[in-house]
Design a protein that fits this description.
With about 260 residues, this protein is an alpha/beta fold. The chain has two domains: about 200 residues, 3-Layer(aba) Sandwich (Rossmann fold); about 35 residues, no CATH class. It is built from nine helices and seven strands, in the order βαβαβαβααβαβαααβ. The chain has a seven-stranded parallel beta sheet, with helices on both faces. Bound molecules: nicotinamide-adenine-dinucleotide (NAD).
Amino acid sequence: MIELSLSGVAVVTGAAKGIGQEIARTLAKAGARVALVDVDLASAREIALEIGGMAYACDVTDKAAVEATAREIQSDMGAVRYLINNAGIVSPPGDPFTENSEEDWDKTFAVNVKGGIFWAGALKSDLEAHEGRIVNITSIVGVIAAPFLPPYSVSKSAANGMTRVLARQFASKQVTVNAIAPGYVWSPLWEELGIDIAKASNGAFGENATDVFQGRVDSLVPMKRAQTPEDIAACTAFLCSDLAKNITGQIIGVDGGITI
Ligand SMILES: NC(=O)c1ccc[n+]([C@@H]2O[C@H](COP(=O)([O-])OP(=O)(O)OC[C@H]3O[C@@H](n4cnc5c(N)ncnc54)[C@H](O)[C@@H]3O)[C@@H](O)[C@H]2O)c1
């Protein structure tokens, strides 16, 4: 039987809620010791308690804070082998794109792109010394356009590009860098996004967040079902395992066929 087992420390950003929370649980079940990083320390602590991990308050857009948090994790838990760049935000809607402010662009890129680069830099030596793994949680809208959300869609394309560049730079050290592009996953992110879509479309996709979400799933997912945090977490654990040691620089859609 093929065993999927991990050993070493995993840093999961945005681990307090949604997809990140489930990635933290799954990596812990597979044997990793998990450092849960989030701006929401109280929620991250609850999950850390549940899975025997440790929680850290850190805004991934603050380079100095990322470096200080990385040192704290190394001192508390030891060398880091797995980095999961999952923290992400959705931009305010912008159709036409001129509706988005400079701040919308800056904030979205800071979290969705620069945050991942800061973390990869802060953990570079550990990752290179331990045949490490980086998994970036990007999005299908980094593969296909989301005209309704320009900064989000463009930032996720950049995060996919960042995955390929880092994969090339880390390759000779046996560090793999991949992206998972989720489709539609119900999470706290959708509670706000669903309302934005309902308002901007005058209810064409439904009146509340859950109706909008289900409407998108029914009309856009060939497999006619939503994706789950567990789907994304399982793929993450696989990419972190030795089974995936020759997979690098890939953008893997976990999307029920949306991007076919
Ligand atoms: N839910 C979906 O349908 C979906 C689809 C495609 C991609 N994604 C991506 O998956 C990832 C997780 O999404 P989710 O649905 O779980 O979102 P979520 O909003 O439910 O959770 C995101 C987490 O990231 C944290 N976070 C936000 N900004 C941060 C910052 N600056 N520093 C540290 N932590 C920060 C939040 O506090 C929160 O705990 C994101 O990158 C998102 O873009 C989600």
